[in-house]
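Note to self: keep these together.
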Amino acid sequence: MKEQKMLFESGNELAAYAAKQINYHVMGYYPITPSTQIAEYLDQMKADGEHDISLIAAEGEHSAAGICYGATTGGGRVFNATSANGLLYAIEQLPVQSGTRMPMVMNVACRTVSGPLSIKGDHSDIMYTLNTGWLILFANTPQEVYDFNICALRWAEKVNLPVIVAFDGFFTSHQKRNSQVFVDDSVVKEFVGEYEAKYSALDMEHPVSIGSYMNEPDIINNKYQLHLAMREALDELPIIFKEYEELSGRTYDIVQGYQYEDAEILLFVLGSAYHTAKVTVDKMRAKGKKVGVFTTKLLRPYPAKALYEICKHAKTIVVADRQDSYGAGGGNLSIELKAMLQEYQLAIKVISRVYGLGGKDFYEEDAKALLELGYEKDAIAFDYLGTYTGEQDYSVTPLFAPLREKETAIECKTLNESTAMPKRLAPGHGACPGCGIPVNVNMLMRGIKGNVVILFQTGCGMVVTTAYPKTAFKVPYVHNLFQNGAATLSGLVEMFKQKQKRGEYPEGDITFVMVSGDGGMDIGMGSALGTAIRGANLIIFEYDNGGYMNTGYQLSYSTPMGAKSSTSHVGNMQYGKTFFHKDSPMLMAATNMPYVATVAESNPLDFMKKAAKAQKYANEYGTAYVKAISACPLNWSDPPNNERSVIAAAVDSCYFPLFEIEQGITSLSYDPENSKKKIPVSDWLVMMGRTKHLGKEEYRSVVESIQAEVDRRWERLKARAEHPLL
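Structure:
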């Protein structure tokens, strides 16, 4: 055994620690709860100089998977982490990775797949990956997360297949436990060994084509070889586990059972619930009931023989699925266990129950209820555990009356007049004190009269306003995920047009507004650009708070350069975010959309006038885009009551200039130079805790770079405003 030390850490922290010790070449990632901490911890260690992994924050999970695939074709070691819909967004890339036999390791902190949106843990995401050709380990303790991450890379490179290390989100991922790690990183490096890729896109002397076009009969042979690699992997994993035991003293089998040898009733459960079930088994055994529990550490390749050896003597097996394969009479654990029993011709009764969806806790009482099912002669084969029917006679009582068109047919030419406009977003939401989201949404709506339908992409704004069963909206509201908001709303716009065209909807206008923020215009930029190019009649409104705020403030492409976040730490080797903020108004303007504008709550009358213009352009010509700088006191680290002055400073420093582009012609809405209010960008940066460190002498070169870029963009903007064609 090699020397180890005790750490009190979570599964996410230990996944990052293992990656640090391996010192991967590249990690492409995108923040998504509950896996985000893995990238955060790695970034902190990077800032402290503990590893040399290149951490690339993509603009979405699909691109993160592409970054990882591209890196693996270069013959190096690659790492990733994701969850839930992020995993599904990337899933198109997973068969590419396995089909071209490129090894890597990806951690999946398992979480509910929406909709409806839920960030809590279950197994509905990981089961989508069963047919992607990836090897899949499932860890049920933080210790296993650490150990499996080390074994996974060795396994991946042995059989040339990528590996997922999965574990329960918010249970294993976040719960801290005493765990052993190797003191010396070199022990881990020696165990995984040197990696020499057989093929590399960087080998100039032996050029290869990776991912060729392939038809029959070659494609079936490719897939057959992948099948053979899976069979080889099943043989290799016990060998790797045995070698790892010699280093660590920890023994792992691909399946694990407790009190199963003489059990009449067995419970089959995956993940952290296994440990709760063990406690229940002991209590029921003390009362003379022959019960047991078993689990698997391996989802792919499927360990049929090992599972057979554990459960072959049971009379009844109760399978607890933390997901449902809807319409199949059970989740994937149930379906595949039944297939194994049929293959081995075992006449064992199987009862399936879906439990724990959306992070619903699993208690000893639940394990007992499941095991007791095995003694019920008339227990139905499939059902859910822990559901409720609700109130059968419940009727919805609106908290406020819907806004009629006549109540919002108000033209607001002054600030005083705007106070008469009813709020479409009602008070009573759960936003943090000083949050700019409700301020900016309501200010936009002050300038928009008549009927409004709002779509929110995922983000803080969506979460704090629509917590079931309440809503803060007085107008129709739709939610869709980050990456598809604009396309979704454009579909609703087309339905409105078609219904009016066919006489199925009354005459009149509706203004459609998509609200995005919290990094939504990174992952959703492609959808937004496509919608704008198509000319859909809607407004895209971005509240830019400069980060992925709803996941705990990771860097986004709109985060200021030099800002610290949970994925751009400040340390001896790092000064915060390393690249300039995205100029999304100019990106949108490049689509030749009819109207682009920037607004700020520090200039409210300008804000409302531009909202009114956006409504006119959206309804009559095509897509309009309005961007507001939006405060986030929690993550900007400044007092909520100072936000109006902080935003004014962003405008006066020209970091966030106010302008509009109408039908391709640019005009400045406010010129701080002419008003003699222009300030250095450093004056704005030091007002916020996230960038206050940039006031130190050691970061002067960073501030000079930011100032030079702000000046360059400002001069270009002025030049456009002065040119008759721009």
